[in-house]
Design a protein that fits this description.
2 copies of one chain form a homodimer.
Chain A: E1 2-8, E2 19-22, E3 32-42, H1 44-51, E4 56-61, E5 67-74, E6 86-89, E7 102-106, E8 110-112, H2 119-123, H3 126-139, H4 147-150, E9 154-158, H5 163-174, E10 178-182, H6 186-194, E11 199-201, H7 207-213, E12 219-224, H8 228-238, E13 239-247, E14 266-269, H9 274-277, H10 284-298, E15 306-311, H11 315-326, E16 333-337
Parallel strand pairs in A: 9-10, 9-12, 10-11, 12-13, 13-14, 15-16
Antiparallel strand pairs in A: 1-2, 1-4, 3-5, 3-7, 3-16, 5-6, 6-8
Helix pairs in contact in A: 3-5, 3-10
């Protein structure tokens, strides 16, 4: 089968930073599905893994943590899916990715694809939806089923126009929250408002004073999706006492956690891969969440965040996608279709 | 009325570090109760506030965040209590404390005292019970009503024999958890086992290897009650992925929060005063929690952690109590009775 990978961590100008190669089709065992990939999406994590590291892999490493495809074979323990099922998933951090013709994925991380949607629109969703879902409904413990419970509560999404932000704003809006998204350009402001944000502020300007001007004394929930080092002090200032902060971006400098102590703030990391990486029993919740997300997409309660679609899953197109993400100003998701 | 206070932050050898003085009895207004103090307990926070700071107060500052006493007057908005009610409470951080003959306290922070118990045993409980309660049942979201939900889950209490630890072990045991407490001396080991700990490990030795020897791969919940700087790295190692850490002790050095990221750990501060300090609507939950704690004490489901009782609320006895806490090896609580 065809696949795209890399052996050394190189910048995109280097021919070998991502390259096409051939390898045998893997075989499904245990809980694994063998999926024929129809479309993939590219995430910041792909760029991060490609860039960060040293040395040389013996076999090419295959990136890709978003896929829509068809089940063509199943392991002997598979119970949730059968052949010909159209599925979507993000997969596991420590396994071979979706930048290939076929991929193995544990069924507990997979959902049945929503019906009546373009393959590209579906492929854009799994990683960001699962991240936003877990952040809002597991870590922050907001209820999606009872919007009345969230009435009058405010969520601030820092970097609202990115992949996760574009789903989080929609899900939070659906859950009845008042959603403030940060965005700094006219096109990202328009995008976030089109994806569920009630108001926007600019994260390149001091945020607390902008909130104050909008009439907010503090914020019940903050979802940090970019540059926690740069935003942490303001997050501590803006958060309500007893409030909850979830961050998906890691810190490079120490965080002054003591700033959160007088307010008894809850600080949670959300890494979508934790459940599969540690093979936790709650892995199955990713199947369950994707099934719910599929229904919301079918019912048009949320919409796909695909914003750029490229034909052909190959090294050349993947390099172009990585280059767009490296500008750090992309809106929504970039999808590649077979 | 008589009171004990200080104007400058001094060590105990100094005569003025705590002194007796006279002041007018304050008047209850709004939601305040005027309480005639019968017994008080001394907490590490008393020592911390006495020692840390500079300059000189114009009027003496009165410490004390644990009291049992009788309501003698009520503000015009009081609805939960009447005169002659025996009450117990920790109170607010930014108001005058219980080291006095009379004290004003917001009714929403107060519970009816448990019946059939010694005043001293009651006075030992409010601050530590509220801290343990909020840490376990609000921050960690454990259920006290459904022990079956917690079956098979393990809580590690770092510093199990201290004031908060001695209540947290009891409440967690009652809630059906498997409780591991840290203790380093034979008397603290015996104390924690007598207060609900199933097993103990020594926090002065590497903790992960001790847990491993006891058969634990990781720990679902960790309650940090001392030296978070010294224990943080081990906490990160011991915690289960998706686990929850609550700390009541602040950090002096930066915490390496990135250690918690791959596991998507939830890290929560618990400061019992947050609700009253910020006058949050959820202040009323401290009244509700103390009412529940009183029932548990009456039903002998938990027991008082009073371990040293001194007769007479005056500067001399308070200095003796502060001195004991300054050794950092006290077990349970020190109580002073009128």
């Amino acid at each position: 089968m065809k696949a795209v990978g890399f052996k050394r961590h190189l910048s995109l100008e280097d021919e070998e930073s991502l390259f096409d190669f051939e390898m045998p089709i893997p075989k499904a065992t245990g809980h694994d599905l063998l999926v024929k990939i129809e479309a993939i999406a590219v995430n910041p994590i792909d760029v991060s893994v490609r860039l960060n590291g040293s040395g040389e892999y013996e076999k090419p490493k295959i990136l890709g943590w978003d896929a829509c495809g068809t089940v063509v074979a199943t392991g002997e323990q598979v119970g949730l899916f059968g052949e010909d099922d159209l599925v979507f998933y993000a997969g596991a951090f420590d396994r071979s990715g979706s930048n290939a013709e076929y991929q193995l994925v544990d069924e507990r991380l997979v959902g049945h694809a929503p019906q009546g949607m373009d393959i590209a629109d579906i492929a854009a969703m799994p990683l960001t939806s699962l991240t936003a879902w877990e952040a809002l409904f597991e870590k922050m413990r907001l209820s999606i089923d009872k919007p009345s419970e969230n009435k009058g509560k405010t969520l601030l999404v820092i970097n609202g126009a990115g992949g996760v932000g574009s789903v989080a704003t929609q899900l939070a809006h659906l859950a009845g929250l008042n959603v403030i998204a940060t965005a700094s350009r006219s096109e990202t402001i328009a995008w976030t408002k089109d994806h569920g944000a009630d108001q926007t502020i600019n994260h390149r300007q001091p945020m607390p004073s902008q909130l104050y001007e909008l009439g907010y004394e503090n914020i019940d929930y903050i979802l940090g999706l970019s540059d926690i080092d740069g935003h942490f002090k303001e997050m501590a200032e803006m958060i309500r006492p007893n409030g909850r902060i979830v961050s998906i971006t890691g810190n490079k400098k120490p965080l002054d956690m003591g700033l959160l102590k007088p307010k008894s703030v809850e600080f949670m990391w959300e890494w979508m891969y934790t459940k599969s990486y540690y093979q936790l029993p709650e892995m199955i919740t990713q199947h369950e969440s994707l099934e719910k997300i599929a229904r919301l997409l079918e019912q048009k309660k949320i919409k796909s965040t695909a914003n750029k679609i490229i034909d052909g899953i190959n090294a050349e197109n993947l390099k172009a996608a990585h280059a767009m993400i490296e500008t750090n100003s992309s809106i929504g998701k970039i999808v590649l279709c077979r």
